[in-house]
Amino acid sequence: MNSASPPGLDLHLFGGVTLGSTALPGPRAKALVLSLALSRGRPVSAAALIEDAWGDAPTGASTALHTMVSRIRINQWHGLIISIGTGYALGIEPSRIDFWAVESLLAAARAELADPTRPSPSTGSWPSRTQNVRWPALPRTRR
């Protein structure tokens, strides 16, 4: 993974797979990026990505995967996917992915709650720590 994320790249998994406010094109591209995002910066083999995006690999799946990665790179998402050995990884820090940002917040909250010396939980820094999280709209309920 790059030591610094390309500027302006925030990946949202909650409420649909989007990069910033732009949805990724097509279900296979979304499956590819989702698979990479869930690996938390670790490289994912081409075979595993083909399995995640296509299920049963069709003839030419390897070429189709490379084509999809190239198209994502050529579009405005340059730097999103990087090559590592025979696989791929996301070129953005996990903290720029809403799913991992929420996990980090939960871990910090658990640590605060587990600290017996802490008088009471505080929320002072939480709003700034959730600024990259796009929360999905909750369905309306009838009363």
CATH third-level topology of the largest domain: Arc Repressor Mutant, subunit A
Kindly provide the name of the CATH class of the largest domain.
Mainly Alpha
Which shape, going by the Cα principal axes?
elongated
Q: Enumerate how many helices there are, as a single number.
A: 5
In CATH, the homologous superfamily of the largest domain goes by the name: Winged helix-like DNA-binding domain superfamily/Winged helix DNA-binding domain
Rg to the nearest angstrom? 18 Å
What's the architecture of the largest domain in CATH terms? Orthogonal Bundle
Counted up, domains total: 2
Mean pLDDT comes to: 78
The major β-sheet equals: 3 strands, antiparallel
Residue fraction in strands = 5-15%
Classify the secondary structure makeup into a structural class.
alpha+beta
Helix content: 25-40%
Q: Tell me the quaternary state.
A: single chain
Order of helices and strands: EEEHEHHEEHH
Beta strand count: 6
What distance lies between the first and last C-alpha atoms, to the nearest angstrom?
48 Å
| Unreliably modeled segments | none
What strand order characterises the main sheet?
1-2-3
